């Protein structure tokens, strides 16, 4: 049994459209107090590019492909790890009066 | 085949966790758990990408050991470096750090495209075209973000402008697009590789050229724009790789970043085109009505005592506060005032700090609870009933000229109505103007007094003055 996983371009457009609306709707509810963590958080999310980079590197067959893949993985990993750690640090600092403890 | 299904499934899980995680950022109380969930999604997706090793083509199988070693080294190098840097970076330096990580994402997308273009497998012209567009956007984001980082980090001090710059930039851009189109058309042929190389040079150069002339004060908008660009580039490479999780992650950020960019530009009362193509913010702005009255200086101690016996105080922090590293001192003063039963609020203008919400982060770092911090729209109606407004290191965002003076360059920009408070104190280093170069009418108002000095020193004296009064 094989399932054809190739996407038609139309399905791809559906995904793009739904993702664009999702991003817009989800983000428009974030208060401006959190806009900096939001920006670094969304920065972290496009760090997902590291998955594509790993795909490119692990399927590389030429020295150029390996070099480009290596650069892609290193940059993508930095994007993901850095975006995560700075967002986490910032969010950990936000406290309400109740929890702040005087 | 099983490996392929597992990889696909992990992408689905990751995408769901990302969206759910972002949704939890709607409140500061749940935001931390949101980013942790998104982090789990990322770890799952990255771990699952190694499953592809079970599904490799014959050609790639020969390189398995090398590629696997390269992948692990790249992950450790990139991830480890960013993890350490991100763990140490000062909160005031956060905008340039975000810009740098952001550029790396764009660079990763461009490198994936480069690998794809170099590959000899036969892909359709549609996939190739999408790959090239993603490469263009990703490359611009990479070099543009690096320039933005250098500017915010003070490594490039002045905007770089020359006559006919826009024409040069437009020429480079059009040429790059044409070369990219030719590279797609001739892909696989002898000239394809050279054209692709030339295309990348053009795209990377355009990112630099586009960002150099933009003034430092506009960098927050630019960072946000490149964040959106990187998202788009990632989404497009996801399409080229037929990976729906990448498409979703990229596109969600692409649209979110676009929204943030527009909000940011709106808060500065400028259009995006204006930010990108005009030379605002280099201090050359002039005009504005003649100023009446004069600035009155006041003593830090007197201002502190006035706040101590006020019933309500609104504090308006600006980047000058962060530069003086005086947030801790400020919060000490706030706690003293609160102990004396003064109602203290913080009012934050959308463009306070160096990127949207940056001031909130700086206050959070000092321990200020977020429920006494208010946005411009929430707090503006409170000013007429407020005894004292304390402005620290903010300038243009409280300038009533934005409301009244049609000839002023900042006319129409939404501002905090600090001038409507019964008494206003402004802590400021000297009599200079804000970055827009506009005289601040507030400083000349009847109800406004200036407390000159470094924010750290002034706040220290204020804290002492309140303490001297006893409990």
Automatic annotation (TrEMBL), chain A:
Compartments, record wording: Cell inner membrane
Protein name: proton-translocating NAD(P)(+) transhydrogenase
InterPro entries, alphabetized: NADP_transhyd_a_C
Record's keyword terms, sorted: Cell inner membrane, Cell membrane, Membrane, NAD, NADP, Translocase, Transmembrane, Transmembrane helix
EC nos: 7.1.1.1
Chief subcellular location: membrane
Membrane topology: Multi-pass membrane protein
Its biological purpose: The transhydrogenation between NADH and NADP is coupled to respiration and ATP hydrolysis and functions as a proton pump across the membrane.
Top EC class for this record: translocase
Pfam family of the protein (one): PNTB_4TM
UniProtKB/TrEMBL annotation, chain B:
Enzyme Commission designation: 7.1.1.1
Keyword Transmembrane (UniProt): yes
Subcellular location(s) of the protein: Cell inner membrane
Superkingdom of source: Bacteria
Enzyme class name: translocase
Keywords: Cell inner membrane, Cell membrane, Membrane, NAD, NADP, Translocase, Transmembrane, Transmembrane helix
Main location: membrane
Topological relation to the membrane, as annotated: Multi-pass membrane protein
The NADP transhydrogenase beta-like domain, residue ranges: 10-464
PANTHER family (UniProt xref): NAD(P) TRANSHYDROGENASE SUBUNIT BETA (PTHR44758)
Family membership: Belongs to the PNT beta subunit family.
Name of the protein: NAD(P) transhydrogenase subunit beta
Source organism (scientific name): Sphingomonas abietis
């Amino acid at each position: 049994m094989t399932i054809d996983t190739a996407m038609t371009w139309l399905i791809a457009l559906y995904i793009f459209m739904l993702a664009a609306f999702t991003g817009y709707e989800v983000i428009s509810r974030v208060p401006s107090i959190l806009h900096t963590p939001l920006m670094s958080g969304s920065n972290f999310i496009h760090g997902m590019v590291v998955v594509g980079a790993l795909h490119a590197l692990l399927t590389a067959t030429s020295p150029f492909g390996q070099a480009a893949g290596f650069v892609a993985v290193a940059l993508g990993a930095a994007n993901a790890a850095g975006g995560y750690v700075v967002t986490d640090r910032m969010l950990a600092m936000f406290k309400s009066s109740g929890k702040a403890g005087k | 085949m099983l490996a392929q299904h597992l990889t696909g499934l992990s992408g689905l899980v990751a995408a769901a966790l990302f969206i759910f995680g972002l949704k939890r950022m709607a409140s500061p109380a749940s935001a931390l758990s949101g980013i942790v969930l998104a982090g789990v999604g990322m770890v799952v997706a990255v771990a699952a990408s190694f499953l592809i090793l079970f599904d490799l083509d014959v050609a790639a199988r020969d390189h398995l050991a090398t590629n696997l070693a390269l992948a692990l080294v790249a992950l450790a190098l990139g991830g480890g470096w960013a993890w350490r840097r991100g763990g140490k970076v000062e909160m005031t330096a956060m905008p340039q750090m975000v810009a740098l990580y952001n550029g790396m994402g764009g660079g990763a997308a461009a490198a994936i495209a480069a690998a794809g273009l170099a590959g000899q497998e036969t892909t359709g012209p549609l996939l190739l075209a999408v790959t090239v567009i993603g490469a263009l956007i990703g490359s611009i984001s990479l070099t543009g973000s690096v320039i933005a980082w250098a500017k915010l980090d003070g490594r490039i001090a002045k905007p770089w402008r020359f006559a006919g710059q826009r024409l040069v930039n437009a020429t480079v851009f059009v040429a790059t697009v044409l070369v990219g189109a030719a590279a797609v058309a001739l892909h696989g042929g002898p000239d394809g590789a050279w054209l692709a190389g030339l295309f990348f040079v053009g795209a990377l150069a355009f990112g630099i050229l586009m960002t150099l002339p933009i003034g430092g004060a506009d960098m927050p908008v630019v960072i946000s724009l490149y964040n959106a660009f990187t998202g788009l580039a990632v989404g497009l490479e996801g399409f080229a790789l037929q990976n729906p999780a990448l498409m979703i992650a990229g596109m969600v950020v692409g649209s979110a970043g676009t929204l943030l960019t527009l909000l940011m530009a709106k808060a500065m009362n400028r259009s995006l085109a204006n930010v990108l193509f005009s030379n605002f913010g280099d201090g050359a702005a002039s005009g504005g009505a003649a100023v009446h009255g004069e600035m009155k200086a006041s003593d830090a101690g007197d201002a502190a005592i006035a706040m101590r016996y006020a019933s309500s105080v609104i504090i308006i922090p600006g980047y000058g506060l962060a530069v003086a590293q005086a947030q801790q001192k400020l919060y000490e003063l706030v706690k003293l005032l609160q102990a004396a039963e003064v109602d203290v609020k913080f009012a934050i203008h959308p463009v306070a700090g160096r990127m949207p919400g940056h001031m909130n982060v700086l206050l959070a770092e000092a321990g200020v609870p977020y429920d006494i911090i208010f946005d411009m729209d929430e707090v503006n109606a409170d000013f007429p009933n407020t005894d004292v407004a304390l402005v620290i290191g903010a300038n243009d965002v409280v300038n009533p000229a934005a409301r009244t003076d049609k000839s002023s360059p900042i006319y129409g920009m939404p501002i905090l109505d600090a001038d409507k408070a019964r008494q206003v104190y402004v802590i400021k280093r000297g009599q200079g103007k804000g970055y827009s170069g506009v005289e601040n009418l507030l400083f000349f108002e009847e109800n406004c007094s200036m407390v000159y000095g470094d924010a750290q020193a002034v706040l220290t004296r204020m804290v002492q003055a309140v303490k001297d009064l006893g409990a």
